[in-house]
Input
Amino acid sequence: MSDCIFCKIIDGEIPGDMVYQDDRVVAINDIDPKAPVHILIMPKKHIPSLLEVEQEEQNILSHIMMVAARLAREKGISEKGFRVVNNCGEEGGQSVGHIHFHLLGGRYMQWPPG
Output
């Protein structure tokens, strides 16, 4: 998508503070962090939201969770705990139309979250 900010970061058109990349996903530090560790993990393929993941794309979701666990260990938040969040739709808080997951940690997470 030519107007998607995450696609532009993935393609290198605009800078992103990249912390992980492989053949399927990219992870960047959030520009407005809500916790000491706040990383966005997204597929390289443009998928607008969780509601639009096709059957043949479902393996990307498990891969993203594995990357989240890896990054939690690397960032030192796996022992005390962390949160992985996906916002879906306007009322769910999704602000960018490219599926992504927030890895948050380094502080106590409140419940309910929002």
Q: What stands out?
A: The mean pLDDT is 95.
